[in-house]
Amino acid sequence: MKDFLLLAKRYISPYKKYLILNIFFNILSAFLTLFSFALIIPILEMLFHISPQHYEYIAWGNGDFKDVAVNNFYYYTQEIIVNHGQSVALAALAAMLVFMTMLKTGTAYLSAYFSIPMRTGVVRDIREQIFDKILSLPIGFFSTERKGDVMARISVDVGEVENSITSSINMLFKNPIMIIVCLVTMIIVSWQLTIFVLILLPIAGALMGKVGKNLKRASLEGQTQWGVLLSNIEETLGGLRIVKAFNAESKVNGRFKRENEKFVRISNRMNRRYELAHPMSELLGTLTIAIVLWFGGTLILAGNSSISAASFIYYMVIFYSIINPAKDLSKAVYSIQRGMASMERIDKILKADNPIKDPASPKPLPEAKPSIRYNNVFFKYSQNWVIKNVSLEIPFGQTVALVGQSGSGKSTMADLLPRFYDVNEGSITINGIDIRQLKVYDLRSLMGNVNQEAILFNDTFYNNITFGVKNATMEQVEQAARVANAYDFIMESENGFETNIGDRGCRLSGGQRQRISIARAILKNPPILILDEATSALDTESEHLVQEALDRLMKDRTTLVIAHRLSTIRNADLICVMHEGEIVERGTHDQLIALNGQYKRLVDMQKF
Question: Is the pTM above the cut of 0.90?
């Protein structure tokens, strides 16, 4: 319960208005329920001729309000019987019962009506918080998390929290109000019977509580396994080409069936325990009613009871009215347990620490013409150093290329510059300012990226090129496309710049996707450019077109290039050869060839 109250404090506070209205109509519904049931007494007395008493009208204010109200109600009923007959009086009471029930159901609907914006609003807020957090977390966080599991948390787990909130509203406000009002009325009707009832109810409650003891743990296992299933589906969809190429359908299918079967076993165990709540509470409630009926009926038959038979039936109706809220209360406890399990998984994202933070007193952006310097940089992802004591300077307007075998640290060097990760030792400066002293947004606004894998979105050419650039004109977009050698194939598509390119640009060739990425970087017009193997996955003709676009893009910019195809960086101002996290050779192409070292060996291998 403590965890839930913290959840309520975090998310329900902005919706106090709806909460107050919900509570108000719940209270009103509870009182109308009792008043409608109160009409049963005169109906029963008329039908069975139980009350021969004659009533006289009493002026309001002359005595206890409750006694005057009951007396005058019976007086008017008596007058209807005298003047119009018992049948008409019975019809009038029945019509009043229908009217009171209509008011009761109307207020019950209004209580639910005002709870809906609160419930959906909380869910919206949680989803937005998760998505904001996902965007703010560093790339390193997702190297240890399955994408499918993250998707499960923002969808299925948030749905469980919504169900938990619905149940909790009923548990804290609707059902307790009904139970309290009914108990107070029962005490007024017969305090002796109510004491007997209050001895029985805690025993029944304790038995029901045992059922939900382990539900939270089982629910946590179920949601975790659902995340594994989603990850499995996401990986299969992303790698479907490889699955089919290697005839691995049976292997992938078998893995999915094993995980799915595990999820089914967990779900069966969890849902069986959940479904046990209703029949168990039904049985215990009926057993309690039977005991009270026997005890009270025995007193009335023996003539030892302080209430009449009609009042006893009214008492039993009120008592029965407690059973449904009590059952809902027990089911709500289980729903809250499931919601808390889901909230634990959501909090794993929401409370994740982001080491890439803005400084307390950020420095302004460096002036134009940025130059970059790596100063004795050390970096590791976990245990082993990936970058070891690297120093490198990239003056403004120059192009520095990093080459070397896979795993030598080239891409890591590029990732450190926009602070996708922070260095462990040493520093990276732009115009002498440590990049950790700049706002992350300001730092990244200086840079444009073109990667080996062109990351595009399921949107139009126009929206992909203008991605991250505000207030771009059509003329600027067209010019960027021309510079990137993309204008012609864009205009040949069915709707020009408004043509949708499909998921990840699947309707385009590799060279076309890369040229759209370059157009996006050109439109941003950054002073610093990072090219991470931008042409390595292209055929010769596409490489020529892309390289031509890159040459235009790199003009008058500070550029860091990572390349496997050494022909693309022949004209770089400086080429650094990396090996096991260190720069082992540096110089121009001709200087490195003359050294007859690792660079010369790489060139010879590519020539071969």
Answer: no
